[in-house]
Amino acid sequence: IICLQECFHVVLGGVPETTQLLKEKFDYIFYTGSTEVGKIVRRAANEHLTPVTLELGGKSPVYLDNTADLEMAVKRIMWGKCINAGQTCIAPDYLLCSKQVEKEFVSKAKTILKEWYGEKSKESPDLCRIVTDRHYQ
User: Fold this and answer.
1) Which residues are catalytic?
2) Which residues catalyse the reaction (predicted)?
3) What is the per-residue DSSP string for the chain?
4) What's the alpha-carbon Rg for the chain, to the nearest Å?
């Protein structure tokens, strides 16, 4: 446990630490992550009637039209999708755009991905990997 007395407590750990932590009474719980763990957090919060916000990986669409700085927009969208292999709450799930913007987006995205990860992206040390098959699925 890292304790910052004047601010807040930060607890680092896995399932055992989290299980123990959820036995405590809190004023409020904010959880972001999987639905499976979200159910566990909700059940534990119910024991003390603790209010909870569960952010369980909702959809994050992107709307892109021809008024945007396409070069900048593509870089930002691809960064959001590629950071941590797209496993973040803000990773774009899909793009809404015109056919013309779609063609430009795809072309620029291919260029940017090659710039970031090279011709053989699977071999790039900069490309994040999903650790387990379960998480991949």
Assistant:
1) 55
2) 55
3) -EEETTTEEE---SHHHHHHHTTS--S-EEEES-HHHHHHHHHHHHHTT--EEEE-----EEE--TTS-HHHHHHHHHHHHHGGGG-STT---EEE--HHHHHHHHHHHHHHHHHHH-S-GGG-TTS----SHHHH-
4) 20
Identify the pLDDT of residue 101.
Answer: 96
Q: How long, in residues, is the chain?
A: 137
* Contacts (Cβ under 8 Å, ≥6 apart) of 11: 1, 2, 17, 21
Which residues, including other chains, have CB under 8 Å from residue 45's CB and lie 6 or more apart? Answer: 22, 26, 29, 51, 52
* 8 Å CB contact between 96 and 59: no
28-67, pLDDT tens digit by residue?
998 887 888 889 999 999 999 999 999 887 778 999 999 9
Tokens 């590629």, located at residue: 82
